[in-house]
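User: Can you help me understand a structure? I only have the sequence.
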Amino acid sequence: MIAVSGIVAALDPQFNTNNNSWGNNVGAAVVLVAFALVILTGLYTLVQRAGRRGTRRTAAKVDRQFRDEGIQADTVGEAVSQYHQAVGSTQPARRASDALVEQRARRLLVESSVAEASLEMVPFLPRLPRSVKRVANRMYLIVSIAVTRDMFGGDPPLEAHHLGKWVVLLDHWPDLAQAVIRDPSLAGRLEKSDSPSLDGLLPPGIQSSEELVAFWHEQTRIGDVAERLVSAMPSRRLRAREKTPVIALT
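Assistant: Let's start by predicting it. Here is the structure, written out as tokens:
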């Protein structure tokens, strides 16, 4: 406003005097427009902030409802359906939108699955904090993909701890993980082997170790779900056996 007033004053020496000059009129109009824009911008900012606060409050309320109702599901769709059945059609004006309920269901499912999957990583955590962060980021990404593609459940059921073991394989033995991606049945053969060193089963160039043998013989087994891990196959497509794009959870 000061710059505009200066320009108008330079063009009209009588600007800001008692004379009714065009400069006074233009200057007054500019000031009024600028003042109106400031007021509108302030109002818009307040409305935006109020909207964000309202969304955060509603999201927190939905999270509490999910926890209070003890809703557990393998897929986001199932979680949303259970939520609506449990909460019911309460006052529409205060009810969370379907999009928000789905968003919170997805986030809660990812967080709970990451917590469960991470238990598989405890014996194999890297020593360096930077490496731990890398593995944690990979875990979150892979679980997010699994939730988005509705991979959990099915027959045999795919569970979060399977993803945890898959992430350990990808991080500790990447060459062997690539071999499993090329041939998912290799995972089952390694788990069922009675050989103390996995002799004859490991691809060329991959050395056996006590840690590797223990990894394949531990309680969590991925052989039955290895194909689904490799192809990121949704559980709903198991019966139809539809072909899905191979995007390998890596």
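Now, to help you interpret it: The two ends are 57 Å apart (CA to CA). Residues 22-68 form the longest helix (47 residues). Let me know which part you'd like to focus on.
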